[in-house]
Amino acid sequence: xxxxxxxxxxxxxxxxxxxxxxxxxxxxxxxxxxxxxxxxxxxxxxxxxxxxxxxxxxxxxxxxxxxxxxxxxxxxxxxxxxxxxxxxxxxxxxxxxxxxxxxxxxxxxxxxxxxxxxxxxxxxxxxx
Length: 128
What we know:
By secondary structure, the chain is of the alpha/beta class. The chain has helices at residues 20-31, 87-97, and strands at residues 13-17, 34-40, 46-52, 57-62, 80-84, 112-115, 121-126. Residues 9-127 form the VOC domain.
């Protein structure tokens, strides 16, 4: 990096889903964060929802033509890794919030794969 190269920072992470509000509510509950803002489309219908803890922000968008990846067949451009003190309790809680647990579990004893309500995989593991 040279002195002329501007530094950048990540301002948010964006996620698409068939129901952006439902996905925002899921991650807010899963992480103990809050849905803080919503933004309408050109018709005034809320379609983007901000979820934050005050330092990190997720933007959950409603995308009418969203199609979840067919994991593990489809490669993923990215996914989330979430760490918890008690993985078993976290897994049960996340499933209660709307996550599902696929049969394919490549993480062995290291992590568990869950699917969020939009069908996208994310991993949970023990906090290190």
